[in-house]
Design brief:
Number of domains: 2
CATH topology of the largest domain: TIM Barrel
Bound molecules: ligand LLP
Structural class: alpha/beta
Largest sheet: 8 strands, mixed
Number of strands: 17
CATH class of the largest domain: Alpha Beta
Helix content: 25-40%
Shape: elongated
CATH architecture of the largest domain: Alpha-Beta Barrel
CATH superfamily of the largest domain: Alanine racemase
Distance between the termini: 16 Å
Radius of gyration: 22 Å
Strand content: 15-25%
């Protein structure tokens, strides 16, 4: 079990996110070492966590940013990321967001549709600048992950169908204010197998070859994010296997001279360093079950309610020799889906105990809401 600063926790208002910065730094070191071996560029997908302390560590490690909104671009700039390290994705970029990105001079727009391309071209022309774009292609690959976080299948709100790629590339060449940088892909999130990335590499190879034969060379190939983590046993795998991830592309993707590989990892960078810390308010004896009712709810960590995700639950204040009992661990919100675990085996748990919901650094704090007029969870940097 991870060592938490329990004395500090006891004087902090719960619920809150605790970030183990030592683990984040170790993760960043292994990530930059693994990607650096191949000269690959990593843009951190800041949708996973935009806490300023986390962003500062990521900037120090030299990563760029993958942003999906104007406010994310603004926050990245405020945190000191260079505009030329920022790529901007999203199916519904507004005119104001496009203008902000052009004004800032970001590296590249990941364009998801023909109408978006036309609007970017028009705004760039009006501003007298050139917009660098990568086309987000939908490669029709099943990432074997939860339906809500699978994005690479063919008819999807994300990206451009392969069948339409020729015509949109022609359109890019015809638009004077557009510079076509490359192709962009993202097949889903929490991908724990290598095979979807191998299939993605093969699809990209055939596209590179087919366009090269027509004299079109893409400077950047962006494979998106998606590398999964071990939610079941975070202490066994505190740092994802970045070597295996990058070696998969190095082995299977045939980049041409002058082509750079970019990726947009989110979850794998920040998930394991974060835990949601919560206090037990009541232990309720049901007829056949016992319920541990905690002060964190789906407003603080929505992943279990939204994706049937499970975060490992630990009682971090129980005496080491406590007997084990079985509980459902639930939050205080008036929704049945406000449940963190069913049939959890925990040391005998009492009112006032503190629990840690592990692997919550990604898509945790950033997805919190104020439903029921609750306050947003705070954070403690360790
Ligand atoms: N690039 C694009 C275009 C994306 O849509 C995403 C995530 C990423 C990169 C980063 O993917 P990652 O490396 O984190 O897998 N809220 C969900 C996950 C949604 C992911 C959305 N897109 C969850 O809590 O599981």
């Amino acid at each position: 079990m991870t060592q938490f600063p329990i004395d500090l926790f006891k004087t902090t208002d719960t619920p809150f996110y605790y970030y183990d910065m030592g683990l984040l730094e170790r993760t960043l070191k292994e990530l930059t070492h693994a990607s650096g071996r191949f000269g690959y560029k990593v843009h951190y997908a800041m949708k996973a966590n935009a806490n300023p302390a986390i962003l500062a560590a990521i900037r120090e490690a030299g990563l760029g940013i993958d942003a999906v909104s104007g406010p994310e671009i603004s926050r990245a700039l405020e945190c000191g990321f260079a505009p030329e390290s920022i790529v901007f994705a999203g199916v519904g970029k507004s005119d104001a967001e496009i203008a902000l990105a052009l004004e800032a001079g970001i590296a590249c727009f990941n364009v998801e549709s023909e109408p978006e391309l036309d609007v970017i071209a028009e705004i760039a022309a009006r501003m007298g600048v050139t917009a660098r774009v990568a086309l987000r292609v939908n490669p029709n690959i099943d990432a074997h992950t939860h339906a809500y976080i699978t994005t690479g299948l063919s008819e999807n709100k994300f990206g451009i169908a392969l069948e339409r790629l020729d015509s949109i590339i022609e359109r890019c060449h015809a638009l004077a204010s557009i510079e076509l940088e490359g192709l962009h892909f993202h097949i889903g999130s929490q991908i724990t197998e290598t095979e979807p990335f191998v299939m993605l590499s093969e699809t990209i190879n055939s596209l590179i070859d087919s366009y090269a034969s027509r004299g079109i060379l893409f400077r950047s190939i962006n494979v998106g994010g998606g590398l999964g983590i071990d939610y079941g046993d975070p202490d066994r795998h505190p740092v994802p296997d970045f070597n295996r991830y990058f070696e998969t592309f190095a082995r299977h993707l045939r980049l041409r001279d002058g082509q750079t590989l970019h990726c947009e990892l989110g979850r794998s960078v920040v998930a394991q360093c974060g835990s949601l810390i919560t206090r037990v308010i009541y232990v309720k004896e049901g007829l056949a079950k016992k319920f541990v009712i905690v002060d964190a709810g789906m407003t603080d960590l929505i992943r279990p309610a939204l994706y049937q995700a499970h975060h490992k639950i630990e009682n971090i204040t129980a005496a080491p020799d406590s007997p084990i009992d079985t509980y459902d661990v639930v939050g205080p919100i008036c929704e049945s889906s406000d449940c963190f675990g069913v049939g959890e085996r925990l040391p005998e748990t009492h009112r006032g105990d503190m629990l840690a919901l592990r692997s919550a650094g990604a898509y945790g704090e950033i997805m919190s809401s104020q439903y029921n007029c609750r306050r947003l969870p705070g954070s403690l940097i360790g």
